[in-house]
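User: Here's a chain of 143 residues. Predict its fold as tokens.
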Amino acid sequence: MSAQEALVLAEEKGLDLVKIAHTATPPVCRIMDYGKYRFEQAKKEKEARKNQRQVETKEIRLSLNIDVADFNTKAKHALRFLQDGNKVKVSIRFRGREMGHPEIGLDTMKRFAEACAELAAVEKPAKMEGRNMLMFLAPKTAK
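Assistant: Prediction complete.
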């Protein structure tokens, strides 16, 4: 039907004439309550946003010669972050003569990854970047 006929029909019903596919020939239109349609769309988008969760990256800083008790405390913090669904960035900063012994830092990172292995998967393995050694852990997906 022509656009004028559709517009008259829509006005009789007290509704709006909305173009659905304006690129088609002839353009496709629909008779609907546009205000109600926009309200429902906004409601769906709000509901979708409510169900989403932003994943944060939490950082744990270790030292090269960390003691066992401190190491366990840091591991517990990391496990808590992973349980909350956050990613964990583990970093070691090398100072002075420590720069000559990156293998000790690598061992510490491997121990930390093993301590968190039940809840974490290594997203990026330990790697030197300047004076820092970084490793990223991500929570294991529940299957």
